[in-house]
Amino acid sequence: MLLWWVFPFLARLVGFFIIFNSLLAIVLTPARAIPARLPWLALGFLVWLVGQWAWAFKHGFWDSRVALRVFSLPGLRRAIPRFTLVHFDANSR
Fold first, then answer.
1. Phi, psi (5° rounding) for residue 16?
2. Which residues contact 38 (CB under 8 A, 6 or more apart)?
3. Distance (Å, rounded) from C-alpha 12 to C-alpha 80?
4. DSSP per residue, 59-80
5. CA–CA dist 35, 18 (Å, integer)
6. What is the pLDDT of residues 23-78, one digit of tens each?
7. What is the DSSP letter of 84?
C-alpha cells in the first residue's frame, strides 16, 4: 500500500534526476557521454512518463501540462486512463 502511495511521486522524481544527469553529462562531455548516456536519457524519460501516468491514474487528473501534451501525441493517446480529465484550453500555455 505504501508503494502505491509513493510510486507516482518517486518515479517522477527519479526520472527527472536521470534526465537531468544525462543531459548535464551530454553537455559537459559530449564525446564520451553521447554513446553512453542516450539509453539513460531514454530510460529517465520512460520512468518519468510512467510516474506521470500513475499519478493521472491514481488521482484522475494530470499534474503536469507537459505530461498531458506528451500523452496527447498519437502513439501515446491510447495510454491515457479513461477516467482522467483531459482538457486542452486554447488560452492556457
1. -60, -45
2. 22
3. 17
4. HSS-S-HHHHHHHTSTTTGGGS
5. 16
6. 999 999 988 888 889 999 999 999 999 999 998 888 888 888 888 888 888 888 77
7. S
Q: Give the single-character DSSP code of 19.
A: H
Residue 81 and residue 2: Cα distance in Å, rounded? Answer: 22
Closest CA to 86 of 72, 66, 74, 70: 72
Give CA–CA dist 19/46, Å, rounded: 10
Residues listed for the chain: 93
Angle at 50 between CA 49 and CA 52, to 5 degrees: 65
Contact 72, 88 (CB under 8 A): yes
- The Cα 83–Cα 74 span in angstroms is 19
